[in-house]
Amino acid sequence: MTMSRRHTLVATVAGLLPLPLRAQEAWPARPVRMIVSYGAGGAVDTVARLVFPRVTEVLGQPVVIENRAGAGGTIAANAVAQSRPDGYTLLDDASGFAINPALMPRLPYDPRRDFLPVARIVTVPNVLLLGPSCPARTVPELIALAKSKPGEIACASTGTGSSQHLALELFNRTAGVEITHVPYRDTPAAQNDLRGGRIGMIVSTATSALPLHGQEGLRVIAHTGRDPVARLPGVPAVAETLPGYESLEWHGLFAPAGTPPDVAARVAVAVEGALKDPALGERLATLGASPGLLRSDDFRTFLEGEIGKWGQLIRAAGIQAG
User: Fold this and answer.
1) What residues does each domain of the chain span?
2) In angstroms, rounded to a whole number, what is the distance separating the alpha carbons of residues 187 and 169?
């Protein structure tokens, strides 16, 4: 057999082998598609567009953002769950990923079985933003007022079953009060009603509340995280009054189940490198966000805790998707 015929035979046999038996191409050899589960201009998208250009620099291949909003993030998640597990399609999602299993029990995917957690990127605390019609200035004052007027204080959120709604429900149950939840589909409308005194307070992300703090009688009286919020100096954590209370909005990356663990590890390393950029850290701080890297195994453990915590609350409160 001549050398040329031998080479031809080897090439032909290699072409017939299943992909796992072929020589693996170095990842990433082409652009990575990042499906963001919420619309352009929202908090998740804003963080993505800050972080992923720096991840692109580390990986040496473009990370192309594709927004697929709708159904509380489940449209994007389902698309990624059905994608090829080769590291070229990833999901950028948020707290709703851990909330939806209890809120929407007929999901077309299983968040545990169908995904590989890659990395948690950032955390953003929720805050209690009060308006001129609610005289409380501290969490103890708000609790006392709510106990004296059960059901009379109206609190807006971004929607039934949202992280902010659940933060309010957790507050009610932990403090033993009844503050009435009013879901809004439109954040500006809720803010207008807060200014006008038609509602007393909003539970919102720090990102949304920071521009309003100190304006027109609006003030943030507490945040729902553990660590101080740099852009809210002197504002305490709810946990200082209600020990153990915590409600964080978080953003994280997922890959389809079956994605090689070494690929997930490379993505996590790239994210870690991006988050070490001081300029990025400063920009995130202006949004009330903090780098919160957790790699795959630790992120999976964190997710299990989130799914259990919010699932138990949703079932106990009888909350259903709107």
Assistant:
1) 30-123+248-317, 125-240
2) 19
Which residues pair with residue 94 across a beta bridge?
251
Domain 30-123+248-317 CATH assignment equals 3.40.50.80:
no
Tokens of 54: 């720096």
For residues 193 and 156, the answer to whether their CB atoms sit within 8 Å is yes
The DSSP H or E segment spanning 137 is none
Percentages helix, strand, coil for the chain, rounded to the nearest 5? Answer: 45, 20, 35
Same CATH topology for 30-123+248-317 and 125-240?
A: yes
Q: Using DSSP bridges, classify how beta strands 89-94 and 32-36 pair: parallel, antiparallel or unpaired.
A: parallel
**Comparing C-alpha atoms, which of 40, 51, 101 is closest to residue 72?**
101
Residues 17-60: tens digit of each pLDDT: 444 434 457 999 999 999 999 999 888 999 999 999 999 999 99
| Beta bridge pairs of residue 306 | none
Domain 125-240 CATH superfamily: Periplasmic binding protein-like II (3.40.190.10)
Hey, is 99 helix, strand or coil?
helix
Distance CA 212, CA 188 (A): 11
Low-confidence residues of the chain: pLDDT under 70:
1-24, 322
Closest CA relative to residue 50, chosen from 244, 240, 277? 277
Through-space distance between the first and last CA atoms of the chain, rounded to whole angstroms:
71
